[in-house]
């Protein structure tokens, strides 16, 4: 280890110590930066949640979850109809966005690989993803709300249906692209195993490949769901919002983000409090919905499977 | 070319076997020289080389076993190693035969030299020629030369049988030289054994080179019925 | 019962790459036949031509005839039908990760429409017994996933899965190369037992394995079949110098 020169042997230990100290400092600095970044990322989330809790918890009572808003000027009331309305809108949006998105993902990953059509579909999805949500609302307004036509369902007026369609279309790109990615990650060996058993290609895709990729596909769906659950702008031109109970697809319907928006802009403090409560409830409900889906799907997974 | 170390090991094995072969060939030649000139000091040389031959036999067997276990030899390499193991054993027996002849020479030391109706030198030269040829065929990997050795065995067998007949007659009719006759008979038998071992070695060479098992094949001797030689 | 395979003038291309050239050979029924050769010699491609799996590559092309049990698999029949008669086991075990052991074995049948549970139970049990895995997994059939088994067990599971559809031929592409020696021995013993019911073709780069397992061996080199003979002949005294050079390790 030491060189023959006695002078060199003296120098070596000190140099070693210095280098070791520098290394330790660098290591500490890097770790510190990593921790700082994590804090910077998580802090706003926590701050928002804590602030919402602070501002909105007080307005959460039974009435909030069971009553509809009172007429202008009256105190009290709740956002029950908005919660229900959001559920209906998101249900319709999922029914539109998830099947089309997954279908597109399957096409892109399994049947259209390398074709120009697949390239076009992928490009379209990416563009659609970038469309501002308010533009989507205006577009659906023009396509469904405004025209009076027999061929277009629920046309001619504001409706829950048009709101669901707008949100559904916004879900498609996310679901489609993550489905494609997840399907591509299924190892080629698994597909080969299915084909070698004499299983037709379409059956192998559906029963084996899609099933193997399903955890990832479900995550993609939940990402899309969480995104559109909080969208307000598209609903301005489609679902419009509703003061009263409504479950009909043919009529305007209330939605949590919409209601929050309307209350926040109103001049009454009472309604402001309700808006805070609504914001808190919205976030909590999204988290709950995602967790529920995770729990339900993990129950079906076997011991040891990925 | 891959497996260079293995190829080198095969070469080394062949070299060691040839060293042993040289010792065995030399032992036979010395034993016969001892018989010719009745020189006991040559008998000592034969005894000593027999010890060296035995040691080499163990070493070669060990080396061959190692190669079989460690190198998974196939086809020609496998046949070669198998042949080496068998030739090894035959060469050791040749060394034993040489020692046996030199022991006979020692016991004949005290006896008077007499004329006997058996041509030991002729048998000896045939047997040593067979040994020389079979070893040459091993060195060259020459199956044709090996086959020519097979056909020489009959002549030696015939001479041995004739010697047996003649010498037993001598022992019956001239009992005063019975000891010499008996010793000569044993020497003749040793030489016949040497010829057999040379034949075995030749058969092993053919197996190695051509993958053909020609053992116990009477047809290669040219169709001569060994029974007729009696 | 297994059937024989007759290959006549088989040529295969991947794009412009002429991977197999003029292959002719007869694989005997109810025997194990080994295919050996250096990397890239075409033996895997050849085996994939026997169950039309090479067609999963869009630029693959084949000419010539392959008769399995007398039927030319390239004229008339669909690949899916052929693959139900000719099973395949791959180099790396590939059980379906989301399925239980039971479902893995039954996959070939379930995905083709069979649903009778009692029949499936019998077939699963029989296949697992035939692949020497039954005793190790019989208590966990539906509880454990296929991917939770060890490597050697996974490969036997894949064998059971292939056997469940009752093929006549079993193709094995280096089935033990990813396994430890004990698992390898188990697979080799298995092949020995399976020979009496199926025709087995095994691609291997391990010559000792070919020697242990197969009655006949074919040596492939650069897309051609150089020699096809009894395993004993190939490994003790092959006719072709190239074969001898390969198996003695002088090249390759």
Summarize the structure.
By secondary structure, chain B is mostly helical.
Highlighted features:
heterotrimer, B: 230 residues, mainly alpha, disordered C terminus, C: 252 residues, alpha/beta, Rossmann fold, 6-stranded mixed β-sheet, 10 strands, 36% helix, 25% strand, globular
The percentage of residues in β strands of chain A lies in under 5%
The residue ranges of chain A in which pLDDT falls below 50 over 5 or more consecutive positions are 1-5
Q: How many structural domains in the coordinates of chain A? A: 2
Mean pLDDT of chain C, as a whole number? 91
Structure summary, number of beta strands of chain A: 0
Interface with most residues? A-C, 25 and 32 residues
List the helices and strands and how they pair.
The complex is a heterotrimer of chains A (306), B (230) and C (252).
Chain A: H1 6-56, H2 62-66, H3 80-111, H4 116-130, H5 133-145, H6 160-184, H7 188-196, H8 201-229, H9 233-236, H10 256-265, H11 269-299
Helix pairs in contact in A: 1-11, 3-6, 3-8, 3-10, 4-6, 5-6, 6-8, 7-8, 8-11, 10-11
Chain B: H1 4-37, H2 40-71, H3 75-108, H4 120-140, H5 143-173, H6 178-210
Helix pairs in contact in B: 1-2, 1-3, 1-4, 2-3, 3-6, 4-5, 4-6, 5-6
Chain C: E1 5-14, E2 17-27, E3 32-36, H1 43-50, E4 60-68, E5 71-72, H2 79-85, E6 86-89, H3 101-110, H4 117-130, H5 134-137, H6 151-164, E7 169-173, H7 181-194, E8 199-203, H8 207-213, E9 216-221, E10 224-230, H9 231-236, H10 241-247
Parallel strand pairs in C: 3-8, 3-9, 6-7, 7-8
Antiparallel strand pairs in C: 1-2, 1-4, 4-5, 9-10
Q: How is this structure best described in words?
A:
The complex is a heterotrimer of chains A (306), B (230) and C (252). Chain A is an all-alpha fold and 306 residues long. Helix content of chain A is 73%, strand content 0%. Chain A has two domains: 51 residues; 237 residues, MetI-like (MetI-like fold). The longest helix of chain A is centred in the N-terminal third of the chain and has 51 residues. Chain A is flat. With 230 residues, chain B is mostly helical. Chain B has a single domain, classed as Methane Monooxygenase Hydroxylase, Chain G, domain 1 (Up-down Bundle). The longest helix of chain B is centred in the N-terminal third of the chain and has 34 residues. Chain B is elongated. Chain C has 252 residues and is α/β, with parallel strands linked by helices. Chain C has a domain of 174 residues: Rossmann fold (3-Layer(aba) Sandwich). In chain C, 36% of the residues lie in helices and 25% in strands. The longest helix of chain C is centred in the middle third of the chain and has 14 residues. Chains in contact: A-C, B-C.
